[in-house]
C-alpha cells in the first residue's frame, strides 16, 4: 500500500474539495480527507487549516447542538472558498497533477 505525504497545498485542495459537497462537521471532514490519501490526518493539521480558511472568508463555522450530545462544529464553504479552490487547482504544479496519488 502506498502512503502519500500531504503538503499544505494538497491538504488545502482536499479540504476544500470535500467542503464543495456541502457543510460537514469536523470529524466527518477529517475522515473524508484521510480516505483518498490513506494518510493519517491529525487535528493539528486539519483545524489550523480550517482556521486559516475562516480568517480568509473561505469557510464559515457554525455550532450544531443536538440534545444529549456535545455541540459540534459544522464547516461550510463560501463563495470566496470556491474561488480559492479554483485558484489552488489552477496553480497545482503539473508534476503533482500528473501523479495519481497527489491528484486524488
What does this structure look like?
The protein is of the alpha+beta class. The protein is built from 6 helices and 3 strands, in the order H-E-H-H-E-E-H-H-H. The chain has helices at 8-20, 26-37, 43-55, 79-90, 94-97, 100-103; strands spanning 24-25, 59-64, 72-77. Strands 1-3-2 form a 3-stranded antiparallel beta sheet. Helix 1 (8-20) crosses helix 2 and helix 1 packs across helix 4 (79-90). It is globular, with a radius of gyration of 14 Å. The model is unreliable at 1-5 (pLDDT under 50).
Task: Name the features.
3-stranded antiparallel β-sheet; 3 strands; single chain; 104 residues; disordered N terminus
SSE string: HEHHEEHHH
Question: Spatial order of the strands in the main sheet?
Answer: 1-3-2
- Residue share in helices? 55-70%
Helix/strand-derived class?
alpha+beta
- The unreliable regions are 1-5
- Spatial shape: globular
The overall average pLDDT, rounded, is: 83
> Could you give a short account of the major beta sheet?
3 strands, antiparallel
* Rg calc: 14 Å
Report the strand count. Answer: 3
Strand content: 5-15%
Q: What is the end-to-end distance? A: 15 Å
Q: Number of helix segments?
A: 6
